[in-house]
Every structure is written in structure tokens, then in C-alpha cells.
Design goal:
Keywords: Hydrolase, Signal. The chain is α/β, with parallel strands linked by helices. The protein contains 15 helices and ten strands.
Amino acid sequence: MSRLVRSVAAVAICAPALVGAQAPATATAAKVTRADLAAAYMRVDAAYTQRENAKTLPDSVRAQVNRTVDRAALSFFSGQFAAAVGTIDAAAAQLTGAASVPPAPPAGPRSLNGAPVSAAREEYLARLAVVDSTGPLAQALLSTRERAKLLVDVPSPERSAEFLNDPVRLSRDLAREVSVLERGRDPYIGLVGDFWRVYRGANNTLVPMRIVVPPSANVRKPVGVLLVLHGAGGDENMFVDAYGSGIATKLAAEQRLILVSPKTDVFGATPEHFDALMVLLRNEFRIDSSRVYLIGHSMGAGAAARLAQARPAQFAAVAMLAGGSPITVANAPPSLFVGAELDGIIPAARVEAAAKATPGATYELFRHEGHLLMVGNGVRRAVPWLVSHTR
């Protein structure tokens, strides 16, 4: 996905108890889409990250902004979408000193070379229909087919995979992927870059994911994996496009790690989805099994803890941000729990209690931060801590 379209990344509101909250059926709420929420969150996330990087964020402002953004989270989960956007933009104004300016709405249906985007989609799907879907190319074929379905004339404002993708780049990539599949080869083996994909997990479940493969992975030396699990209300794009302006992708690349961000509420349903993912990754890359790491935020922290409990030998280390549960299984990987002092959604005391119940766990508290905006700094802390461990 291009940087140009990242200004409308998926909304990052996260609280496990409120998964699946929907906007009430009112005229005002109906006008606020997921894309609107995403764009608002990206504005405040970018402003917060910029102030962090410039080291111009006093603790008093940090605390005030964090409290404001967490209030927006509560509005979101009570179905007050318009109020959530307004509160988020108020937080952004606190950081920038100026009112937020929402991006202009799309001018109309998208096109490619003068033809509707959907024409390219139908061409790719027709070519894929005659490729063997039962043999070793099954996973690659599935992923390419689902990627082709994103070529729609009018993207849904409720499906981030559609409104985030640049149709020009996507069509160019698909032309190569379809051509390689037609020649009986897997187009994703050794493929470097940032891609939205889908794979088949346990029980024929389709698991959406973003995968970011650094250029350094395309060499003979085995590469590690950083698996990141977003919170409730977000999706597979969160760690790549938001959460500290995508700091996870930068740090993963610096450490020669493939970053994989699946849709947590699907992926976390069974550890067998993780098993299928690792089979896929090992088919496409030389994976260093001693360097597989796991980060989760909020709902994703709970999913990360459960996965570490179920598959302890698979991870070198795991980090839970603003959430999590005790990991007590024998041979558990080293674990880091991080709480946020101002978190009113998952209080720091709960995170600390989970850490205390986990043998050998490390607990840290972020002062002056709340549930949502702590993630960027949480990733900055977690990645160096994780990679100091090997299995």
C-alpha cells in the first residue's frame, strides 16, 4: 500500500469487552463511516508521533491528549461514531494547534487506463479460474483471487482493504502474480514488499493479513518473524499504517524480521491458524525458527498470551501491550507486559496482575499515557526487548 493512501488507515479503537459494537441507526451516525474514523485516528496518531519524534511533548499535554483519545474510544464503543471523530479531532488540535482538515471525498468511480477498475478484476478472475486450485498453489491462488476482488469501482467505506489499496499498484502487482500462477509457480515465494493477503487457516477459515517483507529477507540467510495482533475494532492494517505511524514495520525491517499482521478476531480463534501461517511462511521464505516474536495490543494482547500458552515452543519472546493474561505453561517464552497509567479501558493494575501471575515476566508502566496512543511507544520498547531473546 502506498504512503498516499495511508492517510485513511483502519480505525484503532480497541477494547476487548466491546468487540463488534455498531453505530446506532440514526441519521447522524449513518454519515460517519469506518473510513471517516480511520482518517480521524490517523490524523491524531501522526500528530502524536511527530511530537514524540521531535521530543516536544510535555507530560501535561501527553496526559491530556491520551485522556481525550480514550474518551473517543468509549464513544466509539457506545456507537457514537460522530462524537468519536469530533473528540479525536479535538485531541489532534491539542497537538498541532490547528483544526483538523478531513481529506476530500473520492471524486467518483475509480478507473484504470480509461476503463472501470472492475474490468481488470473480471479479467484477472477469469484467468485464475482455470488455474489448479487443489495442488501446491492453492494458498497462492486463494490470496491472488482475494486480492483481485479488491479492484472495485467504488470502494466500500466500511472495508479498509478496499479503500486503502491503490488500484494502479494493485493491478500492476496482480498482472505479475496471475502470470506467474499461469506458469505453475508460486508468485509469493521470496516476494519483498508490503501486501494485503489472505490465507486459508484451520477448518477452511479465510484469514486476512498484511505482510511486510524487508528487502533483506530476499537473501540466503534465514529471516525472523514479528507477528503483531491488533486490538478490537481495528483490523489487519493497524500495525502497518497506524500505531505510531507504522513504527512496527520500520523496526521489524531493521531487525530483518518479516512483519505479519493478521485480523486478530479471526486469527485468534484457534492456534491452528498460527500453525497454518507458519507453514505458509516456511514455504515462501527461509524462516529462522529461533527468531519468531509476538506482540499484541488490548484484545490482541489477550490473543497473544493465549497463543504463547498454546504454542510456547514456537516463540522466542512475547510482548503484551495494555492487556494480556497469565502465561503459566511450562517452557513458556520470556514475556513483557506493558501497562498505561491513564488507561481506563484495561487498567494498568490488571496488566500488572497478569504479569505477576506469569513466572519470570517483566512488567513496565508507561506514565502519562492511555490505552490507544501508548502503542507506538509500546512497540518502540517491545521490539528491542524481544530481539534480545532467541529460542
